[in-house]
Amino acid sequence: MEQNPRRRRFLAALAAGPLALALEAQQTAPYVPKQSDRPEPLTGEEAGFTSIFDGKTLDGWEGDPKYWRVEGGDMVGEITPATVIRSNTFLIWRGGEPADFELKVDFRISSAGNSGINYRSVVVPDSVTPANKFAMRGYQLDMDGRRRYTGNNYEEKGRLFLAERGQVTRVTGKQKPAILSSLGDSQELARLIRDDWNAAHIIARGNILMHQVNGRLMAVVVDDDPQGRMMKGLIGVQVHVGPPMEVRYRNWRIKNY
Predict the structure, then answer these.
(1) CA nearest 201: which of 219, 180, 183, 186?
(2) Whole-angstrom distance, CA of residue 229 vs CA of residue 207
(3) What is the pLDDT of residues 217-247, one digit of tens each?
(4) Which residues have C-beta within 8 Å of that of residue 233, sequence separation ≥ 6?
(5) I need a surface site. Which of 44, 128, 171, 223 has the fewest CB within 10 A?
(6) Rounded to an integer, what distance in angstroms lies between the CA atom of residue 121 and that of residue 48?
(7) In whole angstroms, what is the distance from residue 154 CA to residue 140 CA?
(8) Are strands 234-239 and 114-124 parallel, antiparallel or unpaired?
(9) What is the tens place of the pLDDT at every residue in 75-100?
(10) Tell me, what's the pLDDT at 10?
């Protein structure tokens, strides 16, 4: 009979010695809260995240190579004077259509740049540029080099601005998104966004969508619009209509629930 994973880990720890056995017991024992316990910061990366970008190739991703490449370990999206676009186009991860998940990635964007991380999205026809096979509709953690939009939840080709930076909103599809609460002043939050590398963190659980940048919560959407919302879908990154620009991504990792 095939052993379950927990039993296999226990037997391996038993064979490795008392210290390994003690560590295994700590990992599998249920947490029992004490009155003195309080929430505390994580030490290191939470377990369960896996990489979705090898830093060498675009294997597992699909997009127009005119705009996307790998350079120095980074995923690079670039528009040059010779490749200015009339429609937004995406590099799409083809490793699945996550539903409930966390996604972490580092990004750096030029001052004139506009990009974003789409999730729970679908590929759609592009009426402006029919040859563009990589247009998407869906939730987006918006970002730009001038820090006007970075952190927003913007639904590309859909319901548009769902939450601006600093807002907790509820979306019903029957009226404009309603602001439920504040996460802070938008301009003050913008000061936490660097001109160099930044860390993005998306949490999608059911109809709750959370955007973090550099460890600070930027936007939360409670999506109570059953006709408009998506509960699973593709992940992609964008190069946007506008002047020449560059955006870089690295350290992609995902944790599914």
Answers:
(1) 219
(2) 8
(3) 999 999 999 999 999 999 999 999 999 999 9
(4) 97, 98, 119, 120, 121, 122, 138
(5) 44
(6) 23
(7) 5
(8) antiparallel
(9) 999 999 999 999 999 999 999 999 99
(10) 46
Identify whether the C-beta of residue 14 lies closer than 8 Å to the C-beta of residue 21: yes
**CA-CA distance, 67 to 82, in Å (whole number)?**
11
HSE (side-chain half, CA atoms, 13 Å) at 191: 4
Banded pLDDT at 44 (limits 50, 70, 90): confident
Token pair 């490449």 in the structure block, residue: 69
CA 221 to chain centre: 14
* Assigned token pair, 213: 């940048």
CA distance 234 to 236: 7
Q: Which residues pair with 91 in a beta bridge?
A: 237
Find the angle CA(62)-CA(249)-CA(244) to the nearest 5 degrees: 85
Question: How far apart are alpha carbons 59 and 144 in whole angstroms?
Answer: 26
56-63 contacts: CB < 8 A, separation 24 or more? 58/91, 60/93, 60/94, 60/95, 61/91, 61/92, 61/93, 61/94, 62/91, 62/92, 62/94, 62/134, 63/89, 63/90, 63/91, 63/92, 63/134, 63/236
CA distance 111 to 109: 7
- The number of residues making up the chain comes to 257
Domain boundaries, the chain: 1-33, 50-256
Q: Which residues pair with 102 in a beta bridge?
A: 203, 255
